[in-house]
Specification:
Radius of gyration of chain B: 21 Å
Helix content of chain A: 25-40%
Strand order of the largest sheet of chain B: 2-3-1-4-5-6-9-10-11
Number of helices of chain A: 7
CATH topology of the largest domain in chain B: UDP-N-acetylmuramoyl-L-alanine:D-glutamate ligase
Strand order of the largest sheet of chain A: 2-1-3-4-14-13
Strand content of chain B: 15-25%
Number of strands of chain A: 14
Helix content of chain B: 25-40%
Number of strands of chain B: 17
Largest sheet of chain A: 6 strands, mixed
Largest sheet of chain B: 9 strands, mixed
Strand content of chain A: 25-35%
Structural class of chain B: alpha/beta
Largest interface: A-B, 34 and 30 residues
Number of domains of chain A: 1
Number of domains of chain B: 2
Structural class of chain A: alpha/beta
CATH class of chain A: Alpha Beta
Shape of chain B: globular
Oligomer: heterodimer
CATH superfamily of chain A: Class I glutamine amidotransferase (GATase) domain
Number of helices of chain B: 15
Chain lengths: 242, 420
């Protein structure tokens, strides 16, 4: 990271901020400040160029047309791709996850190229939209507690050899491929269908992004009382038989 | 209550075709049974039964009325009420004043049987095009569009698109908010549009041009797309401070009992609607002044010896307007959020609300999803108390009137609690 301040870049809130995605930026900032880290949040609108010097990049969910526009502008801009080549930490959520892959189906029903930062591609699901609470066990290699979140998408995301599933669902649909995978990751690039404020329900993921950015194995403790209470409540509500 | 002034007189029923008469009667029976069973007013079930028997009933009932439709994400119940009050200056009004705003509820309200001249009807956004086709309105008021219950509703821009397609052939005068790019897009294909500069605090759903997808430029109150030239139309009517400016540049003071900028905007749109029917802004605004609470919203109630003002906020745009009208710190604030089906089951919208604006207020959090709120407020860096009941919040709150802000079903629950 740069010496003075941790730079958190929120990519295209004008297009990709439909489901409370601002929450992820707020939680990363908050968790960093609780550790007395100096943080700068940079909100990059889609008519601005994406800086390549960020530490953590967040790219959120959006409707179908804005998703296409975002993919077009990110391909032309190349800032995010160059940042990734420099080892930036990236979290893509829902539509943002799909954009990080090779391609997705756009609002015109056409195959739209993504950024190719994750070895995944997305087709449109034939069945009902995946809507509802999700629980998922994270790839043990990441050493994180179970994920809880909410999904709302039509896409089906297929994983290639170059990525691992971020998690395996125990409730909900995840990638929609029917094999129980949810999200994908490689190195420091992560994608998930748990939309909007996924970090508010999973502060350990926010802390993981901070640890990667700081290149440390541990952070000073920060209070998680309310996050823990919320997690316990949502996990109980999601596992309770309907 | 506005809705009960149009109780059966029989005069209308007598003029209806036989099939419609049977349908209306069956609907009333179903409603009465439902009421007896303690399931609310019965207006929705009554309307459903009636529409099953006569699918054209809504059109038949609307046939004798000058119909005004009101739709929006926020403010439609209040604005429907304000317009109804204003138009009473020109003749009797029938209205779905209690907010049953889908076709069954609307049918039921109109089937009340009345000698009304005007039908002032709140319509759910999703049903606007269909209801406009069936009721052939003289005027349609479009107030605003923003994100709301995205786990079950269409995307916000798609809603604007649906309005645009559904209303392009309407003969109605469309009264539309020129400050909302999505509403402007929806209305700009209509034949007769009266543009109202009613303002819009929430801008997060219209940074992308609804016409071409270009990035919207929004300097001050203006907005335009640099790529395709789609831009804010010149308004005929405007809200300026606390005055309505009419098309002749006359300025009329708005003196409402209802609080907040959003209601000044609602009153401005309502004055523009009233003018379509020859009711002057002066007369219209004078009549709107009589409205003190709408379906419990804005009501100041007594509970446990304390004054509590009940405020409904269902989505980020609504919360934003609500924060701007509450009394400043150290006024205690109670927040209650549920995520039942009627609220939307996804709480991620809480992160689009600037709870940071509550800094300095003692804050009490309750409701089914109080823990979601707790995390949101913790991240906002606020001090707050999580409580189990309104009673507990009231007991802990420092002196002064309490502002209670809740989303849909949480609001209904608060009303029940304070009613004892």
């Amino acid at each position: 990271m740069s010496e003075s301040s941790l730079r958190v870049v929120w990519v295209y809130p004008d297009l990709l901020s439909t489901y409370g995605d601002r929450g992820n930026a707020l939680v990363v900032e908050r968790r960093a400040r609780q550790r007395h880290l100096n943080v700068t949040r940079i909100d990059v609108r889609s008519d601005q160029s994406v800086p390549t010097s960020g530490d953590i990049y967040l790219i959120g969910g959006g409707e179908d047309r804005p998703q296409r526009l975002a993919a077009e502008r990110l391909r032309n801009d190349t800032g995010l791709v160059r940042a990734a080549e420099n080892g930036a930490i990236i979290l893509g959520v829902c539509a943002g996850f799909q954009i990080l892959g090779h391609e997705f189906v756009n609002d015109l029903g056409q195959r739209e190229p993504g950024l190719g930062l994750l070895d995944v591609w997305t087709t449109r699901g034939e069945g009902e939209r995946c809507v509802g609470d999700v629980l998922a066990d994270v790839d043990p290699q990441l050493g994180l507690p179970q994920l809880t979140g909410f999904e709302n998408h039509q896409g089906v995301t297929h994983l290639g050899q170059g990525v691992k599933p971020l998690a395996r669902v125990t409730a909900g649909r995840g990638n929609g491929t029917g094999d129980g995978t949810e999200g994908a990751w490689r190195d420091t690039v992560f994608g998930t269908y748990l939309h909007g404020p996924v970090l508010a329900r999973n502060p350990a993921v926010a802390d993981m992004l901070l640890k990667l950015a700081l290149d440390v194995n541990a952070l000073p403790p920060a209070d998680t009382t309310w996050y823990d209470a919320l997690r316990a409540e949502r996990i109980a509500a999601t596992t309770r038989p309907a | 209550m506005a809705g009960t002034e149009s109780e059966p007189t029989g005069a209308r029923d007598a003029s209806l075709p036989a099939r419609a008469k049977i349908a209306v009667t069956a609907g009333k029976v179903a409603a009465a049974v439902s009421r007896k069973a303690g399931r609310g007013s019965g207006s929705v079930i009554g309307g459903k039964v009636a529409l099953r028997l006569d699918p054209d009933l809504l059109a038949t009932l609307a046939d004798h009325l000058d119909v005004v439709l009101v739709s929006a994400t926020n403010g439609k119940t209040t604005t429907t009420r304000l317009i109804a009050e204003a138009l009473r200056a020109a003749g009797p009004v029938v209205s779905n004043a209690l907010g049953a705003n889908m076709p069954a509820g609307i049918t039921s309200a109109l089937a009340g049987g009345s000698e009304a001249r005007f039908g002032v009807i709140e319509v759910d956004e999703k049903y606007l095009a269909g209801v406009a086709r069936d009721t052939r309105p003289k005027a349609i008021a479009l107030l605003n569009l923003s994100r709301d219950q995205l786990d079950r509703a269409a995307e916000t821009r798609m809603m604007a698109e649906k309005w645009r397609e559904g209303l392009q052939d309407t003969e109605a005068v469309v009264i539309a908010n020129a400050d909302d790019p999505l509403v402007t897009w929806a209305a700009s294909s209509c034949k007769k549009v009266v543009w109202v500069a009613a303002g819009q605090a929430w801008k997060e759903d219209a940074w992308s041009c609804p016409a071409c997808g270009g990035v919207m430029q929004r300097p001050g109150d203006d907005w335009f797309c640099q790529e395709c030239g789609f831009r804010r139309p010149n308004p005929h009517w405007a809200l300026q401070g606390t005055h309505v400016i009419d098309p002749q540049r006359g300025a009329w003071p708005i003196q409402l009992q209802l609080p907040g900028r959003a209601n000044l905007a609602n009153a401005t749109s309502s004055a523009a609607v009233a003018a379509v029917f020859g009711v002057s802004p002066q007369v219209a605004l004078e009549r709107m002044r009589g409205v003190s609470a709408v379906a419990g919203r804005y009501d100041v109630v007594q509970y446990q010896g304390r004054d509590i003002r009940l405020l409904l906020a269902k989505n980020p745009a609504g919360w934003l307007e609500t924060f701007s009208l509450i009394d400043g710190p150290p006024t205690p604030v109670v927040l209650s959020v549920n995520a039942l089906d009627a609220d939307g089951t996804d709480t991620s919208w809480l992160w689009d609300v600037d709870y940071e604006r509550l800094a300095g207020h003692p804050v009490f959090v309750l409701g089914q999803r109080k823990l979601d709120l707790a995390v949101r407020l913790e991240v906002a860096g606020l001090q707050f108390h999580v409580v189990d009941s309104l009673e507990q919040a009231v007991r802990m709150a420092p002196p002064g009137r309490i502002e209670a802000i809740a989303n849909y079903t949480a609001f209904q629950q608060l009303r029940k609690v304070v009613a004892g």
